[in-house]
Write a structure and sequence with these properties.
This is Porin domain-containing protein. It comes from Desulfosarcina alkanivorans. This protein has 2 domains: 79 residues; 331 residues, Porin, CATH 2.40.160. 19% of the residues lie in helices and 47% in strands. The protein is elongated, with a radius of gyration of 36 Å. 32% of the residues are buried.
């Protein structure tokens, strides 16, 4: 379009010069033949100018059409984009998030083996909405609505129920609101994590999606085979392994203090009289990253079998990729003559970028869980985990193996071997 305009200006300049010559020749009596030639040149220049003006008008129409198409495309992209979340409160910042975590689980109870298609309970399929408002100063008001929907929970499927296991419905994880006052701390109200939730699960290995201190999440529903009776027992993996991770999620009111040199103190109260206290610590010391937590929890009338418990965990990650994790706890059971339960769990791992996909994490672990389901029980486990992060896809592919052994006064139980592989995709 710029070239067309330049040509028009040039021809108009030529036309002006020719007209000037004609005027001068007419004034001084130029012969008719010369005037005819000049008039012919003028007519040619005028015709060319008119043609180029029409071309310029057509180009302007095309440019405007392209602008309109671009505006429409931009509007459609803004409307169709998953990140374009509209809210009724213009001051609110809203984030939608979630994940799908599906796996194949193989289990051998010493008598028979089975294959299950499961939802990985180490980190379940879920969706959530997080909303925050900053009214001014150091204050923040927030809400969190998060639900999970698991089909064939990996911690529930067993030899008798291989499919269709679980609620087959949405289950609440967080229905929560909070006010964060900065220097005065954070107050939370609703269904959500109690102060002690997660204190037994500090883990910097990068492999917790397929194995960590909560042993029953992988294959907790599998029943032990009793060799004395040559039949499946009623005892499953989940009942003899517990990492005593506080009070979990519940309807509570919770307070978290501001961070003091990496330390944060927390407490919560449950409506039926339960409560807990916890302290967490995070730090980067030279080449080491540290995460630690400990908690005392008293479930009160919310539990029929537990009086109170104390548990904690610590995890360390070195810049080289080597890492270690340790967790332990003790539990006071209700009922006369019942022994206290206890556990310890340890993990060693390594993380490195060995391929362009992302970080590869590997680990091995071991744990002993005693007197959990009954006095005299000793449940041992060891396992191997591998997780490949695929950054471009927001995906983690994983493989895990776990050995479960139960020494009990109630029977002679065969060990259970379990292997699980799958993928977790986050958005």
């Amino acid at each position: 379009m710029k070239t067309v305009m330049v040509n028009i200006l040039r021809r108009m300049s030529v036309l002006a010069v020719v007209i000037g010559f004609m005027t001068a020749f007419s004034a001084y009596g130029a012969d008719p033949e010369t005037l005819d030639r000049l008039e012919k040149i003028i007519r040619q220049q005028q015709a060319q100018i008119e043609a180029q003006q029409k071309a310029l008008e057509q180009l302007q129409v095309q440019v405007q059409a392209l602008k309109n198409q671009r505006e429409v495309a931009s509007a459609e992209a803004a409307t169709d984009s998953p990140a374009a979340v509209k809210t009724g409160n213009p001051k609110a910042n809203v984030k939608v998030y979630g994940q799908v975590n599906k796996a194949v689980l193989f289990s051998d109870d010493g008598d028979n083996s089975n294959v299950y298609l499961v939802d990985n309970d180490n980190s379940s399929t879920r969706v959530g909405v997080l909303g925050t408002i900053k009214p001014g100063g150091n204050y923040e008001v927030g809400t969190r609505i998060e639900v999970e929907f698991q089909s064939n929970d990996s911690n529930l499927v067993n030899q008798n129920d291989k499919r269709g296991v679980g609620d087959n419905n949405f289950r609440k994880r967080h229905l929560d609101l909070w006010v964060d006052g900065g220097t005065i701390g954070k107050f939370s109200l609703g269904w959500g994590s109690t102060a002690s939730d997660g204190t037994s699960e500090m883990d910097l290995s990068g492999t917790s999606v397929v194995g960590y201190s909560s042993i029953g999440d992988m294959a907790g529903g599998q029943l032990f085979y009793d060799s004395d009776n040559n039949a499946l027992s009623v005892i499953n993996i989940g009942s003899v392994f517990s990492n005593m991770d506080g009070l979990g999620r519940d309807e509570r009111i919770r307070y978290d203090s501001p961070s003091f040199n990496g330390f944060v103190g927390s407490t919560s109260y449950i409506a039926d009289g339960g409560g807990d206290f916890a302290v967490r610590y995070t730090a980067q010391v030279d080449a080491f990253k540290l995460a630690a937590a400990a908690a005392y929890a008293n479930p009160g009338s919310t539990s029929e079998g537990i009086d109170d418990q104390l548990a904690g965990s610590v995890s360390v990650l070195h810049d080289s990729g080597f890492n270690g994790t340790f967790a332990m706890g003790t539990r006071d059971h209700k009922g006369p003559g019942r022994d206290d339960g206890g556990f310890f769990y340890t993990k060693f791992g390594y993380r490195a970028r060995w391929c362009p996909l992302g970080v590869t994490a590997m680990s091995i672990d071991f744990g002993r869980y005693s007197d959990i389901a009954a006095d005299g029980d000793d449940a041992d486990t060891f396992g191997f985990q591998m997780v490949q992060d695929i950054q471009g896809w927001g995906t983690e592919a994983y493989l895990g193996y776990r050995f479960h052994d139960l020494d009990s006064n109630g029977g002679d139980y065969d060990a259970i071997n379990a292997i699980m592989t799958g993928m977790r995709v986050k958005f």
